[in-house]
Design goal:
Helix content: 25-40%
Structural class: alpha+beta
CATH architecture of the largest domain: Beta Barrel
CATH topology of the largest domain: conserved putative lor/sdh protein from methanococcus maripaludis s2 fold
Number of domains: 4
Number of strands: 22
Strand order of the largest sheet: 2-11-14-13-12-15
Shape: elongated
Order of helices and strands: HEEEEEEHHEEEEEHEEEEEEEEEEE
Radius of gyration: 43 Å
Largest sheet: 6 strands, antiparallel, barrel
C-alpha cells in the first residue's frame, strides 16, 4: 500500500512539473511576443496639422429638375402641317416649333372682319339719320319719339360693332394658335406627334416637351433639426450650394449655385424640410431627373486646426489620433472634433498646428509604439 502511494505521489509531482514547465514556456513566449511588438517598427503615413478656413456644411440628397417644363400641345384642332424643330434642339422663347393648317381659321377671321365692316356701315348710316331726325324734331317737322327710336338704333349698331370686334379678336387668337411657338427658352425633347396627323386641343399626348436647362433647379431635403441653422445662414443672403455626383470622392463638383427657396412647411411623414437651389448649369452637367448629393454651405470657421479625416479614429471613449513624437514614438491622443467632411476634420481640442498625425497604418499601432515615417506633408 505504501509503495502504491509513493508511486501516485511521484506521478502527481511529475504531472505538476510538466504543467509548470509548459506554463513557464507560454509566459516566456508571451513576453517575447510583447517585447518583439514593442521593438517592432511600424511603417506609417503622416501629415502635419495646419490652420485653415473650413466651411461649415450640411449634406443632403437631391433631384435635378428643369427650371421650366412645358408640354407643347395644340390649342386648336386641325392637321399638323409642319414641325420646325429638331429633336434635342435648343430654342428661344418665340421660336416657331410647329404649324397647324390655318386656312379654316383664316377664313373665320376674314368673315369676322367683313361682318364688322358691314355693321360699321350700318352704324354710320344710322348716325346720319339720327342727326336728321334731331334737326327735324327741333323744327317740329317730326316727333321726338322718332328721334329717340333712331338714337336706340344707333346704340344697337354700336353694340353690334363691339360684338364684331370681339369676334375678330377671338378669330385672330385662334388663328395665332395655328402657329405653335416656344413659350420659354429651353431644349425640346423627342417628337411624339408627326406632321400629317390630325391634332386636337383635347389631346393628352404633347407634340414634344420643352425643358429649361440653363439655369436648372435641384430639390433636396434636410432633417428638420437643421432648420435653425439654415434660417441663421439665410440672414446674410442665400447661401452657396454645391451639387456632387452620388459616386466619387466628393471632389467632383457638378455645379455651384445658391439656395433659392426654403419650403414653408415640414413634411411630417419624413421629418424633413424641402429646399430648392438654382444652378447656372452652363456646362450642362446637371440633367433633369438625376439624383445628386447636395452640400449647403452655412458659414466658415476661420483659422482652425485641421487634419485629414482619415487621421481621426474612434474608440469607446471618443475620437483620438496617433501623434508622432520625437524619436518616432506614436502617442495616442484624445481629440474633440467640431466639424468633419470627407476631406478634413476640424480639431477643436487636443492637437496643435504643426504636430504630425498618422493617416495610414494606425490599425497596427499602440500607445508608445515605434514608427517609421513614410510621408510628411501638410494636411489637406
Amino acid at each position: 500500500m505504501k509503495r502504491f502511494l509513493a508511486i501516485a505521489v511521484l506521478a502527481l509531482a511529475l504531472i505538476g512539473g510538466l504543467v509548470w514547465l509548459r506554463s513557464g514556456q507560454k509566459a516566456a513566449r508571451e513576453r517575447d511576443a510583447k517585447q518583439e511588438a514593442a521593438n517592432a517598427i511600424v511603417p506609417v503615413n503622416i501629415v502635419a496639422a495646419r490652420t485653415a478656413d473650413v466651411p461649415v456644411t450640411l449634406d443632403g440628397i437631391g433631384t435635378v429638375q428643369a427650371l421650366y417644363t412645358v408640354n407643347i400641345r395644340p390649342m386648336v384642332d386641325g392637321p399638323l402641317v409642319e414641325v420646325r424643330f429638331r429633336e434635342g434642339q435648343d430654342v428661344k422663347a418665340g421660336d416657331v416649333l410647329a404649324r397647324i393648317d390655318p386656312r379654316t381659321y383664316q377664313a373665320t377671321y376674314d368673315q369676322a372682319v367683313a361682318k364688322k365692316a358691314q355693321d360699321e356701315a350700318s352704324l354710320a348710316n344710322a348716325k346720319l339719320d339720327l342727326a336728321r331726325y334731331q334737326k327735324l324734331a327741333k323744327s317740329q317737322y317730326t316727333t321726338a319719339q322718332q328721334a329717340d327710336t333712331q338714337r336706340a338704333t344707333v346704340a344697337q349698331d354700336e353694340a353690334l360693332v363691339l360684338q364684331d370686334q370681339a369676334q375678330i379678336d377671338s378669330a385672330r387668337t385662334n388663328l395665332s394658335y395655328t402657329t405653335i411657338v416656344a413659350p420659354v427658352d429651353g431644349r425640346v425633347g423627342i417628337r411624339q406627334v408627326d406632321p400629317g396627323n390630325l391634332v386636337h386641343s383635347t389631346d393628352t399626348t404633347p407634340i414634344t416637351v420643352l425643358t429649361t436647362l440653363k439655369p436648372i433647379a435641384v430639390i433636396f431635403t434636410l432633417p428638420q433639426q437643421d432648420l435653425p441653422k439654415v434660417m441663421d445662414a439665410m440672414q446674410n443672403g442665400m447661401p452657396p450650394v454645391e451639387a456632387l455626383p452620388q459616386s466619387g470622392d466628393g471632389n467632383d463638383v457638378l455645379g455651384r449655385g445658391r439656395l433659392a427657396v426654403l419650403d414653408n412647411q415640414i413634411d411630417q411623414s419624413t421629418g424633413t424640410i424641402k429646399l430648392k437651389a438654382i444652378f447656372p448649369n452652363q456646362n450642362l452637367h446637371l440633367w433633369p431627373g438625376a439624383f445628386v448629393n447636395v452640400r449647403l454651405e452655412l458659414s466658415t470657421e476661420h483659422n482652425v486646426t485641421v487634419v485629414p479625416s482619415e487621421a481621426i479614429l474612434r474608440g469607446p471613449t471618443g475620437a483620438f489620433v496617433y501623434v508622432v513624437k520625437d524619436g518616432n514614438i506614436a502617442e495616442r491622443r484624445p481629440v474633440t472634433i467640431s466639424n468633419q467632411n470627407e476631406q478634413l476634420a476640424v480639431v477643436a481640442t487636443g492637437l496643435k498646428p504643426g504636430e504630425t498625425v498618422v493617416t495610414a497604418g494606425a490599425s497596427r499601432l499602440t500607445d508608445g509604439a515605434k514608427v517609421r515615417r513614410l510621408t510628411a506633408t501638410a494636411a489637406g
